[in-house]
């Protein structure tokens, strides 16, 4: 019997684009999308931000030093976070699961600014009972530490939890830890995966 559902955020609850993020951030400092991608993504700084190693203020300071230009703090947050589009088809699924008494837990690699943007922009995270984020766990998927945090939050045995994520590697690790897990491709496929487990939404 499934008691808890774990959902990834990016490309499950909301679609996003790192290309758009880099382009918008580059527009603030006359740098190209590729330049920002190299500074932010390829360097690994974004993943350190998502691990919670940098606060938004520290990230802002790093960015100004990296591009050698003063950039407005709020404009940088907006440029880096206004990259999401709500997956509207997932909302009825969440509401149905919630109405049936299932526990909903977020399990996401995300930085604080992205989490807060989604929270304020869309009423989707408010449906969840608890949150496991990389910036609070101090680890990013597929690192084991963040999954161990999730196992504490589900409030049930691993086999009583179902996890969906768009990254196959993360699903593979979740299964090794005893969770029921399926790769997310689209909401229709998720509904079929749930139906196979006698859960109707």
Describe this structure in words.
- Strands 5-4-1-6-7 form a 5-stranded parallel β-sheet, sandwiched between helices. It has a two-stranded antiparallel sheet with strand order 2-3.
- It has helices spanning 18-27, 33-42, 45-50, 56-67, 73-81, 91-99, 112-121, 134-137, 144-153, 168-176, 187-195, and strands spanning 4-7, 14-16, 84-86, 103-108, 130-133, 161-165, 180-183.
- It contains 11 helices and 7 strands.
- Helix content is 49%, strand content 14%.
- It starts with a strand and ends in a 6-residue tail after the last helix.
- It has 2 domains: 4-15 and 85-195, Rossmann fold; 18-81.
- By secondary structure, it is α/β, with parallel strands linked by helices.
- Helix 1 (18-27) crosses helix 2 (33-42) and helix 1 (18-27) packs antiparallel against helix 5.
